[in-house]
Amino acid sequence: LQVPCAPNQPVSSESRRFTTKHSKKALKASLTLGVLLGMFFVAWLPFFVTNVAQAVCGCVPAGFFDVLTWLGYCNSTMNPIIYPLFMRDFKRAMGKYLPCCRRSGEPRPSAISLSMRNSNSGPRAAASLKNVL
């Protein structure tokens, strides 16, 4: 059996650009995921290995176990640092809501606009919400 081949079609620059753009996004997403998972394993794997060793032989000093526990906790501290470094959308969102990260020309969003944006409500709900407040 032979599978019929499609005739060679010239690849347009539009499809080449599309492929390149998506491959760059996929590469960046893979890099971000790799860094996050790598940091997770570096922070938590020693804790879990030591925890198993403690259950089997009981030979792990309490101070060392505490240090490894806090190393795992530091992973949670690293995530807010890693996300803005690798994700532009996350950085923009944090800039909107944190006063320290906001650009000088951007207005501060009000609580009503945040609530309306998150609830996907229409303009009629906004008018009634303003009457309540």
From TrEMBL:
It is a multi-pass membrane protein. Residues 113-133 are annotated as: Disordered. It is found in: Cell membrane. GO terms for molecular function: G protein-coupled receptor activity. Residues 113-122 have a biased composition (Polar residues). SUPFAM superfamilies: Family A G protein-coupled receptor-like. The gene is Htr6_0. GO terms for cellular component: plasma membrane. This is 5HT6R protein. It holds the Pfam family 7tm_1. Keywords: Cell membrane, G-protein coupled receptor, Membrane, Receptor, Transducer, Transmembrane, Transmembrane helix. Its main location: membrane. GO terms for biological process: adenylate cyclase-activating adrenergic receptor signaling pathway; positive regulation of MAPK cascade. Signal peptide: none annotated. InterPro entries: GPCR_Rhodpsn (IPR000276), GPCR_Rhodpsn_7TM (IPR017452). Residues 1-83 form the G-protein coupled receptors family 1 profile domain. The chain crosses the membrane at residues 26-47, 67-86.
